[in-house]
What does this fold into?
Amino acid sequence: MDADHPPLPAHEDRALTTPTPLPFGLLLAVACLSAPPTAAEPDTARQAEVAGRGAQVMPFDLEKTRHIFTPTAEGGIQQVVVLDPQDRAQTEAIRQHLAAIAAGFRRGDFSGPLAIHGEGMPGLARLRQAQPGELDIAYREVADGGEIRYSSKTPAVVAAIHQYFEAQLADHGRHAMPGHPYHHP
It folds into this structure.
């Protein structure tokens, strides 16, 4: 070192050769911004495909109705209701469709959901394999539409119903919502 440049203290010398760590918050923000979408984020392309196929299978208008999926300890409750209680045509279309779907499910026919959601629909393969007496399906009318109750005493079937409901919620996006037990007597 010369007289014009005196030697640096030891800690300053290290500072010149050791990188300064970035604040944790900055690192976290950069990581989050560059991370790929998670499975929990909606797949709007899939939702659009499902809505398009649904229009071929379901006789009611998704824009005028809402799917409600409520898991229960023994299975779950699927409702479809109209957004406008005065829309009797949509209410009747929902009731006819759900009654037919429930009758098919009791026979082991899951072709409606397969046509809309595809073979890879979570939970659906196990529901299709349910043995007689392992899956109970009941339809009833509700004030603004209809509902299907799924129940089982077999834990694997109950788990499949819950998986099926979660996948339905993801696939139907804004046309569906999770239910709450107090909505269902």
Notes: The helical segments are 10-17, 24-34, 44-57, 88-106, 111-117, 124-128, 155-172.
